[in-house]
Design goal:
Blueprint (H helix, E strand, L loop, with lengths): L1 H5 L3 H11 L7 H4 L3 H11 L2 H7 L6 H9 L14 H7 L3 H9 L14 H7 L3 H9 L14 H7 L3 H9 L14 H7 L3 H9 L14 H8 L2 H9 L14 H7 L3 H15 L1
Helix pairs in contact: 2-4, 7-8, 7-9, 8-10, 9-10, 9-11, 10-12, 11-12, 11-13, 12-14, 13-14, 13-15, 14-16, 15-16, 15-17, 16-18, 17-18
């Protein structure tokens, strides 16, 4: 079926569905710009709510309005708990998001992992959709099942613009997830240079500790985030901070053979002692 969808072989798609009861994967249809297969599914199953949920992926406001005018549930969900607004946020479908919200979409609906549409928008740096969601009352500090806020996700993937939008609209810059990580911990772990700078300039606790006592600099040293290590140190990170096992960032840089970070830490240690 996937090959039939990719190749836009609509006769084969219909044959597989009718003769072999093989279902059309509705996520593949927009991925390969195959609206025809999508409509075949609708025609064969009359699954208006199922199709409606995935319809934002096509970025076609007329398609969305068709479903709404025919009684689709504005907050219909997939098995994973995603609503049409979740998908609109994931693909930064601006007009679709506006239509859904104006028709009563639950802006803070959560999927099975606790993600709101704003979590998805932050993960993929959907700038415009993030602004639309926030301006319409999205919970900016909503937490998923692991305690991540949208800002945690923005920091993890270095979504610079979305991070700025979230912070300017009141995101908790030092929010902690279930493991005690702040957004700055994540920025340090993945060497999100620009996001680290944004977080620090907006008051992030540079020496915040997670449940194991790691500061952002501990993580930067462990994973060899050279530039972020320099940013953290230049902004006052405690290079002698100890985790629950008594290890400093230098211990981790040495253990994991992060030579450049060892040099950075040692040079700053020397500077502090002068």
């Amino acid at each position: 079926m996937e090959y039939a969808i990719i190749s836009h072989n609509i006769d084969f798609v219909t044959f597989l569905m009718n003769e072999h009861n093989i279902k059309i994967n509705l996520e593949l249809c927009p991925k390969y710009n195959n609206l025809q297969s999508f409509l075949v599914y609708l025609d064969q199953t009359n699954g208006i709510n199922t199709c409606f949920v995935y319809s934002p992926n096509f970025h076609l406001s007329s398609l969305l309005e068709y479903f709404i005018s025919n009684g689709a549930d504005i907050n219909a969900k997939t098995k994973n708990g995603c609503t049409p607004l979740h998908y609109a946020a994931r693909v930064n479908s601006i007009e679709t998001s506006e239509i859904l919200i104006s028709n009563g979409a639950d802006i803070n609906a959560k999927d099975e992992d606790g993600y709101t549409p704003l979590h998805y928008a932050a993960r993929v740096n959907s700038i415009e959709t993030s602004e639309i969601l926030i301006s319409n009352g999205a919970d900016i500090n909503a937490k998923d099942e692991d305690g991540y806020t949208p800002l945690h996700y923005a920091a993890r993937v270095n979504s610079i613009e979305t991070s700025e939008i979230l912070i300017s609209n009141g995101a908790d810059i030092n929010a902690k997830d279930e493991d005690g990580y702040t957004p700055l911990h994540y920025a340090a772990r993945v060497n999100s240079i620009e996001t680290s700078e944004i977080l620090i300039s907006n008051g992030a606790d540079i020496n915040a500790k997670d449940e194991d006592g790691y500061t952002p600099l501990h993580y930067a040293a462990r994973v060899n985030s050279i530039e972020t290590s320099e940013i953290l140190i230049s902004n006052g990170a405690d290079i002698n901070a100890k985790d629950e096992d008594g290890y400093t960032p230098l211990h981790y840089a040495t253990i994991y053979n992060r030579k450049e970070i060892v040099e950075i830490l040692n040079s700053n240690k020397t500077r502090l002692s002068c």
